[in-house]
């Protein structure tokens, strides 16, 4: 297993001058450099980024939402950045983000604003204006005559650019940003480690709150409060109990009363720290678990660690996915399924970063015919589940690929079901 250096490891979330923590300036600089290297290695002269995670990767802006496609960023081959945003956001960015020297007001040509306009002519005006402003900036920075990357495949937007004589490269841009983002920097890894630590604060709160008679929603609410208290942005997750744990009650915490003998599992997904997203499951037992529940948990845990032991640089996803259950182990007959692709989200590993699902994906439904190679510095979540009579267990670890295997970022005990005494 990977042996951390002295300065690595979760530290506090506040800024201090007396120890090294996440260096946000370095985080921004190194991410932009990686994107710029991929751009300079391509035939493109610039990339227009519309996807929020790509915008954040290059600009360092929070990208916490908006009215839809009312922000976008142009990165040129010389490293210049032009960012467009809504009036209030742009004015704040000019004041608060000195590393961005060209922030302009956006025309929302995509998303909610044109959809709500009610007229085709209005939608065309917004799209035309958006494109004209971008082309003007491309001309100012000397990249108008070179191919421009675009990280979304929006056909109407592509058509308007083509009428302005711009050679748009969508697939090439998407690949460039994917290549830049798949290997994480030191500070990105520390952000994910911090996200895992905050999730563990949430698990701790759950152990204090679970009692017979408490609603799922009550317990989940106190956990979410704890996450926010530690500086997380909570944009997903749920908690389920008893019969809601099998089949899993996907992303839906209910008002069900928790009862003695229940299994409870909490899914902290999309819990973000500086934008870096968690995906972290743990299972709890209200009182001592039954033998069937313990057996199910052991199967899920062993399956998970079988996969983890296969992950190392140079291994391919078709080899690694063999550690996940076969169709019998997936309980495909219970689902009435005949192919692994029908079992989405039950057993797989997926990349983590500024998005919940990044490269790589390790999954029996895809990897055997479409393998990719694992590289050092990739980060991912590995998850398994198993039924126990009319309930189920679910567990997940967050890891980073090191030169000799994986380092586990998640630290909540996993050897046995966490038992809640009441």
Automatic annotation (TrEMBL):
Coiled coil: none
A Pfam family that the UniProt record links to this protein: Peptidase_M24
Designated name of the protein: M24 family metallopeptidase
InterPro entries the UniProt entry points to: Creatin/AminoP/Spt16_N, Creatinase/aminopeptidase-like, Pept_M24, Peptidase_M24B
Top-rank taxon, per record: Archaea
Taxonomic source organism: Halocatena salina
Annotated Peptidase M24 domain residues: 190-403
Signal sequence, renumbered to the chain: none
């Amino acid at each position: 297993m990977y042996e951390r250096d002295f300065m690595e490891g979760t530290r506090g979330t506040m800024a201090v001058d007396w120890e090294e923590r996440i260096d946000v300036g370095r985080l921004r600089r190194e991410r932009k450099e990686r994107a710029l290297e991929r751009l300079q290695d391509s035939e493109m002269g610039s990339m227009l980024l519309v996807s929020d995670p790509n915008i954040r990767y290059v600009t360092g802006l929070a990208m916490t939402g908006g009215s839809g496609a009312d922000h976008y960023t142009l990165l040129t081959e010389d490293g210049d950045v032009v960012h467009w945003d809504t009036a209030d956001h742009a004015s704040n960015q000019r004041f608060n983000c000195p590393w961005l020297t060209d922030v302009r007001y956006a025309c929302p040509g995509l998303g909610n604003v044109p959809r709500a306009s009610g007229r085709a002519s209005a939608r065309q005006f917004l799209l035309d204006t958006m494109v004209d402003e971008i082309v003007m900036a491309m001309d100012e920075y000397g990249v108008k005559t070179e191919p421009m990357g675009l990280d979304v495949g929006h056909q109407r937007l592509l058509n308007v650019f083509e009428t302005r004589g711009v050679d748009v490269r969508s697939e090439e841009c998407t690949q460039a940003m994917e290549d830049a983002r798949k290997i994480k920097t030191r500070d990105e890894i520390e952000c994910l480690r911090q996200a895992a630590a905050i999730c563990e604060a949430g698990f701790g709160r759950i152990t204090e709150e679970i009692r017979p008679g408490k609603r799922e929603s009550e317990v989940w609410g106190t956990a979410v409060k704890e996450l926010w208290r530690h500086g997380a942005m909570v944009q997903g997750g749920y908690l389920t109990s008893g019969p809601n744990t099998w089949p899993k009650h996907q992303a839906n915490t209910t008002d069900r009363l928790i009862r003695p003998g229940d299994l409870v599992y909490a899914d902290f997904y999309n819990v973000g720290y500086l934008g870096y997203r968690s995906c972290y499951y743990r299972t709890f037992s209200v009182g001592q678990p039954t033998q069937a529940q313990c057996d199910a948990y052991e199967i899920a845990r062993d399956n998970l660690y079988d996969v983890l032991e296969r992950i190392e640089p140079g291994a391919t996803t078709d080899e690694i996915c063999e550690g996940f259950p076969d169709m019998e182990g997936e309980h495909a007959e219970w689902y009435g399924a005949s192919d692994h692709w029908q079992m989405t989200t039950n057993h797989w590993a997926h990349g983590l970063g500024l998005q919940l699902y990044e490269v790589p994906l390790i999954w029996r439904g895809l990897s055997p015919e479409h393998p990719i190679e694992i590289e050092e510095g990739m980060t991912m979540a590995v998850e398994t589940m198993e039924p126990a009579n009319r309930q189920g267990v679910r567990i997940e670890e967050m890891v980073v690929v090191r030169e000799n295997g994986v380092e586990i970022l998640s630290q909540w005990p996993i050897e046995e079901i966490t038992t809640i005494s009441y």
